[in-house]
């Protein structure tokens, strides 16, 4: 399995608080069957002022520690980027990293309010050759009233990432309902852990994967936890019916 949303880098946001915690998170992930993690700290101006250089440097430190601890897991750069007016410029100028330097990046909308310009922002990103992966839509407070807008953004080319814990029930009945509905409607493009600690919100994908496998089949479970995430890391196109042929990045 591949985890493309993980707050494993130490000291950069509300995720891992130390290198020791990060190494233990990597150990837990590897034991769960995760072979690769995208390290995606928050980028939120005024709250978490991370940028490409800071994330890259923290990743190098963690890579060394993981190798020293003989944990067999791959790590790639990324970020959980909050909605900001100059988001496209930040990505184009490499101030904010995409996932493994591909066309894909994690986009985190505000939790409580749907910003009026979100659809336009997504369209702008797509027109510039970058594909937003909207993170944990099933946990957004406004999904009850703006689900159609999320579907329209996906239809335009954005991807939707559901949290593993939502599927297994860790985030409550409401998040579970929306994750199940989105799975039934074929709206989930990938599942990720959104891990913040090795015990609290741990990097566990297997529980959600097994639930999807039982309900929707092994093929779908593999697509959402391995094939689609792997295609994203390799900068290939991802569609609802599977991985398509690669298209050069603009």
- Number of discrete domains: 1
- Supply the number of helical segments: 9
CATH-derived architecture: Alpha-Beta Barrel
Could you state the CATH homologous superfamily?
Answer: Metal-dependent hydrolases
Cross-sheet strand order for the largest sheet:
3-5-6-7-8-9
- Looking at the structure, the CATH topology is TIM Barrel
Features of this protein?
3-stranded parallel sheet; alpha/beta; globular; 6-stranded parallel sheet; 9 helices; 250 residues; TIM Barrel; disordered C terminus
Question: How is this structure best described in words?
Answer:
The chain has nine helices and eleven strands. The protein is α/β, with parallel strands linked by helices. It has helices spanning 19-32, 52-68, 87-92, 118-127, 143-156, 164-168, 172-184, 206-216, 218-233; strands at 2-6, 36-39, 42-43, 74-77, 80-82, 104-108, 131-135, 159-163, 190-192, 238-239, 242-243. It has a single domain, classed as TIM Barrel, CATH 3.20.20.140. Helices cover 42% and strands 16% of the residues. The longest helix is centred in the N-terminal third of the chain and has 17 residues, at 52-68. Strands 3-5-6-7-8-9 form a six-stranded parallel beta sheet. It has a three-stranded parallel beta sheet with strand order 1-2-4. Strands 10-11 form a two-stranded antiparallel ribbon.
């Amino acid at each position: 399995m591949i985890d493309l949303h993980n707050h494993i880098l130490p000291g950069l946001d509300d995720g891992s608080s130390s290198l020791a915690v990060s190494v233990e998170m990597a150990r837990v992930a590897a034991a769960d069957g995760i072979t690769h993690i995208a390290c995606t700290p928050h980028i939120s101006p005024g709250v978490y002022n991370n940028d490409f250089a800071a994330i890259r440097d923290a990743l190098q430190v963690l890579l060394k520690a993981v190798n020293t601890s003989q944990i067999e897991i791959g790590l790639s750069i990324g970020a959980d980027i909050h909605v900001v007016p100059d988001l496209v410029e930040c990505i184009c100028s490499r101030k904010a990293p995409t996932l493994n330097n591909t066309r894909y990046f994690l986009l985190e909308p505000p939790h409580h309010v749907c910003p009026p310009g979100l659809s336009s922002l997504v369209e702008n990103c797509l027109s510039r050759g970058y594909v937003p992966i909207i993170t944990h839509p099933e946990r957004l407070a406004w999904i009850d009233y703006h689900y159609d807008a999320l579907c329209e953004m996906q239809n335009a080319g954005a991807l939707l990432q559901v949290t593993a814990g939502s599927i297994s029930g860790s985030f409550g009945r409401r998040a579970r309902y929306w994750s199940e509905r989105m799975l039934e409607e074929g709206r989930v493009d990938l599942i990720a852990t959104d891990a913040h600690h090795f015990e609290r919100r741990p990097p566990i994908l297997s529980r959600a994967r097994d639930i999807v496998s039982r309900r929707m089949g092994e093929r779908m479970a593999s697509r959402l936890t391995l094939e689609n995430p792997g295609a994203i890391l390799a900068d290939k196109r991802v569609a609802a019916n599977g991985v398509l042929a690669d298209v050069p990045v603009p």
